[in-house]
Structures are given as C-alpha cells and as structure tokens.
C-alpha cells in the first residue's frame, strides 16, 4: 500500500474504529450498571424482531441460496476471484478445514446431539413426541437448519468481497461491495462508514453468541466429567481463558495460528465421528444419513417458506429455532464472509460455490446423522431417556449421550478439547476480521487492534450471561441481523451488476 493510500485511509479507519468501540463500550457499560433494564430491553427486542421481521429473515435467506446457485450456473461461473492467472493459496483440505471451523465451529458441537433430541421430545409438526416419526422429523429439521442456507449467507458476502479485493484491488471492507451500486465516492464517505460499522456490530454479536454457547457447554462438560459446578464464576473464568487463547492465535496470523488450529479441528472431528460411528448404531446412522438427505431435499421448499400466520405452537418453535438460526447465520456473515474471502483468492466462482455451499453442508449432515442418530437410538431402541435432560438444558446433550456408549468418558474429554479449539478458530478469525474491518481493510491488521477486540468480545459475553443467559445471546444476534440482512441483499445485486459490467467490457 502506498504512502498516499495510507494517508487518505486514516480518517475513515479511525472514525469506523472509534464509533464501533464507543457503541460496544456503551452496551457493556449498560449491561453492567443496569442489568435488569438491559435484560428487559433485550426481551422486548427479541419478541418484536421475531414477530414483525421473521418473514424478512426467512425471505432473505432463501434469496441467498437461489442467488448462489444461479451465479454458479451462469456464464459468470468461470470468473476467478483474483487475476485470471491466479490460483488458490491453500490446499482444498486446509481450505475446507478453515471454512468449517470458522463457519460452524462450536455450534455443531453444541447442537449435534442436543437439537435432534430436543425436537424428538417437543415437535410442532404433528407427529407424536417420542415416536419413530418424531425421530425422523427431528433429523430432517436439524439438516434444514444446518444445510444450504447458512453457507449461502456466508457466500453472498465472501464472493463479492474476494472479487473486489483480489480482482480489483479494493480494500477488504464490506463497504467495498457497494462500489458498483453507489459509486466509490459514497463508499468512502458516510454511507461506507455506516456499512462497515454495521458489519463490525454484526460480527461482534455473532462471535459473542458463540462465545456464550461455548462457555455454557464447556461448563456442562466440566460438570459431567469432573464434577465442577455450573456457576457464573466458572463461566466467567472460562471466557477469560478462551479470550487469551483466541486473541493469541489471531495475533499469530493465518498461517501460524488460524490454519494450524483449523487443521487440528478437522482431524479431531473426523476422529470423534469415526469413533462414535463404530461404537454407536452404525447401520442406523448410515440409514439416517440417507433418509435425512432425502427428507431434506423433498421438504426444502416447503420448510424454507413456512411461517406461522395463525400462531400456535409452531410460532414459538420458529422464534426459538429457525428464525434464531437464520439471524445467527446473518450476524456471522460479515466475519465469516470476510475471512472466507481472505482465504479464497484464485478460485473460480463455480469452484467457490461448490466448496462453500455443498461440501460443508454435507459435512454438517454427516455430523448430525452420527451424533443425532446415536442419541435418538438410545431413546427409541435402548429405552434410555436422555431427552428429558436436554429439554431442561440444551448444553448437556452431547455429554448425556456419550455417557451411555463405550469409550464415552474418553470421547467426552476429547470433545471438551474440540469445543475449545473449535471456538478458538471461530473467535480468532472473528478477531482478525474485526481488526481488519477497523483498519481500512488491512489484510494483515495490527495486533493491538486484535487485542482490543478480543477483550471487548469477552466483556460483552460476560454481560450477556449476567443479564439473561442464552436468551440474551439469541437476542443480540437477532438485533444485529435485521439491518445487515438488507445489506446482504444489496451485496447480491451489486455483485451481479459488477459481473455483468465486466462481461460486457470483455465482449
């Protein structure tokens, strides 16, 4: 970067950073000084967003899936995210490992056994809770929540961002996506700053939610294995330790820190899946994977557009699960999208969509087929009631399931390690991206910025746990996702316009 570019970038970099820090400090301060009013506001906000904008989350996520498939199958599928002679920086294995670790991470571990068990005991689809049909429906809805939709949300940010960064040398900022729509002058002005601040807030919300979930599950695992009590003191201690780990690994950079931990995650994931596949109900797992994919594909359109116009039980299910997930994925999109863009230089649009949409979705299906089926098999075949514990506390699901299988204690300990490293990979890439977004898109941001954001994420997670636990964690994702979902729709339009312009110029 030239000296002139640095000089012109300073005001924008400082304003985005200062405003973002001020908003975050205000939230943390409010939560610490008046936790009751903070919690009450979060509850009202949560109800309002799910009631009045639930359709928006559903519609935009569907648009993202359609857009990704359309652009990959179009004449633009062979466009490279970089110069025409560029090639991928990372091997497919390392690329997938970083995609999977950053994009799903601790969420898969948290919900792998717990979500199917929860739906099995409390389904809104008409099947008798605890029945064979309920088990099948539970796997189907878990596949739906972790299938194409979340990855499409990441892709619609990552694709245009990689395109502008590496093909047109634009800064690594979310606002760069809007150059074809509003022009470079507005992107450098107030409009661009507003977009980047919203991206930072959404990233902060998504990572903080994951930090809270990881903390709750680690506390549950330590309680199940070592008898360490569940308490706020223990949870705050866990957050502090995790903050040191993810901030430190982010400071090491992608090659020495993030990539190494992501590769480790992939191998531990494969080891745990293989171990449970062998000691668990092997044949039912295979059958469940095949049946689940079939049910997922056959019900995809219906479930993608189903809301609750007449209220009832399905309305509470939507707000607690589907809409929460869609908001969570949207709030993760700026940081996962920025990180995925950073590691995807040189890939074609078609290759990118295949790698970001299809492969990780199949990985999620396999994970849920193994862990979800193993948990449901205990209920249906072995008549061991494990869903009751999960209905009381979702975070205990995977450890409750492990306790009834051979090598369960060993797998539980390994799972604790995986929870830590999965979260560290998500959070260190998030910390890296926050620092990047607040330093005018610097692809190698300063460590001082990473330290500041690492501390603030931990502080916000502590405040959310103190003022309302999981409910407030969900609310902060919903709040950040609403405005950013509109930005993502505009990103799709802008990217398509840029591709058409380049194609016309070449023709």
TrEMBL record:
Q: Which UniProt keywords apply?
A: Cell membrane, Membrane, Transmembrane, Transmembrane helix, Transport
The record ties this protein, via Pfam families, to: BCCT
- GO cellular component annotations of the record: plasma membrane
- GO terms, molecular function: transmembrane transporter activity
User: InterPro entries, alphabetically?
Assistant: BCCT_CS, BCCT_transptr
Note whether Zinc-finger occurs among the keywords.
Answer: no
Topology relative to the lipid bilayer, per the entry, is: Multi-pass membrane protein
Q: Does the keyword Membrane apply?
A: yes
Transmembrane feature ranges:
15-33, 53-74, 95-114, 148-166, 195-213, 233-254, 266-286, 323-340, 352-370, 410-438, 450-470, 476-499
| Protein's cellular compartments | Cell membrane
Family designation: Belongs to the BCCT transporter (TC 2.A.15) family.
Write the protein's name: Glycine/betaine ABC transporter permease
């Amino acid at each position: 970067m030239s000296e002139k570019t640095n000089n012109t970038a300073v005001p924008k970099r400082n304003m985005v950073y200062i405003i973002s820090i001020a908003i975050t400090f205000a939230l943390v301060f409010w939560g610490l000084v008046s936790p009751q009013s903070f919690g009450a506001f979060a509850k009202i906000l949560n109800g309002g967003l799910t009631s009045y904008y639930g359709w928006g989350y559903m519609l935009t996520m569907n648009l993202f899936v359609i857009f990704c498939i359309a652009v990959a199958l179009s004449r633009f599928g062979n466009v490279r995210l970089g110069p025409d002679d560029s090639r991928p920086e990372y091997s497919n294995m390392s690329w997938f490992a970083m995609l999977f670790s950053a994009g799903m991470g601790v969420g898969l571990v948290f919900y792998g056994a717990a979500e199917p068990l929860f739906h099995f005991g409390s389904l809104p689809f008409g099947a008798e809770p605890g029945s064979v049909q309920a088990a099948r429906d539970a796997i189907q809805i878990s596949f739906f929540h972790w299938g194409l939709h979340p990855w499409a949300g990441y892709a619609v940010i990552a694709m245009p961002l990689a395109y502008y960064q590496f093909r047109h040398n634009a800064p690594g900022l979310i606002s760069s996506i809007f150059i074809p729509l509003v022009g470079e002058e507005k992107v450098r002005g107030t409009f661009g700053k507003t977009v980047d601040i919203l991206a930072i807030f959404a990233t902060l919300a998504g990572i903080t939610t994951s930090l809270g979930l990881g903390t709750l599950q680690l506390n549950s695992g330590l309680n199940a294995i070592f008898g360490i009590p569940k308490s706020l003191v223990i949870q705050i201690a866990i957050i502090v330790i995790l903050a040191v780990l993810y901030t430190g690994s982010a400071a090491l950079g992608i090659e020495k820190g993030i990539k190494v931990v992501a590769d480790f995650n992939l191998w531990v994931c494969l080891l745990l899946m293989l171990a449970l596949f062998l000691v668990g109900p092997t044949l039912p797992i295979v059958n469940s994977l095949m049946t689940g994919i079939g049910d997922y594909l056959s019900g995809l359109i219906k479930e993608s557009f189903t809301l609750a116009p007449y209220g009832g039980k399905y309305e509470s299910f939507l707000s607690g699960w589907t809409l929460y997930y869609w908001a969570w994925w949207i709030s993760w999109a700026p940081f996962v999208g920025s990180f995925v863009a950073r590691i995807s230089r040189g890939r074609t649009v078609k290759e990118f969509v295949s790698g970001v949409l299809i492969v990780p979705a199949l990985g999620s299906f396999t994970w849920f087929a193994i862990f979800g089926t193993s948990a449901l098999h205990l209920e249906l075949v072995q008549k061991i009631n494990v869903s009751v514990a999960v209905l009381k506390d979702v975070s205990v699901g995977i450890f409750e399931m492990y306790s009834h299988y051979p090598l369960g204690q060993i797998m539980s300990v390994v799972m604790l390690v995986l929870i830590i490293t999965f979260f560290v990979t998500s959070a260190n890439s998030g910390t890296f991206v926050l620092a990047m977004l607040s330093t005018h898109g610097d692809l190698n941001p300063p460590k001082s910025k990473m330290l500041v954001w690492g501390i603030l994420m931990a502080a916000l997670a502590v405040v959310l746990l103190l003022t309302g636990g999981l409910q407030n964690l969900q609310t902060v994702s919903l709040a950040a996702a609403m405005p950013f979902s509109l930005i993502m729709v505009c990103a799709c339009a802008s990217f398509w316009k840029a591709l058409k312009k380049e194609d016309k110029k070449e023709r």
